[in-house]
Amino acid sequence: MDHRTSSSSLVGGDLGNSLWIRQEIQRFESVHPSIYAIYDLIELVPDPLLAQQIREHVVCIEG
């Protein structure tokens, strides 16, 4: 195996991962104010069980 070929493919993979990470950070930064707003609204739900269920759904959406 040629060292240059394997090194260049690793660099390409690193660049792809870096791009994916930057895109994921941008996505998170664009939605996180809305997520915080949802958590603020959940605090206003008087039923603790319902509030917990909603919180769990928000966590699933975040993931």
How does this structure look, described?
This is Centaurin-gamma-1A. This protein is 87% helix and 0% strand. It contains two helices and no strands. The protein has one domain. The model has no long low-confidence stretch (mean pLDDT 82). With 63 residues, it is mainly α. The radius of gyration is 20 Å and the shape is elongated. The longest helix is centred in the middle third of the chain and has 40 residues.
Low-confidence stretches: none
Structural domain count:
1
**What can be said about the biggest beta sheet?**
none
Per DSSP, what share of the residues sits in E-state strands of 2 or more residues?
Answer: under 5%
Q: What topology emerges from the helices and strands here?
A:
Layout: H1 3-42, H2 48-62
Helix pairs in contact: 1-2
Which key phrases capture this entry?
87% helix; mainly alpha; Centaurin-gamma-1A; 63 residues; 2 helices
Summarize the structure.
This protein is an all-alpha fold.
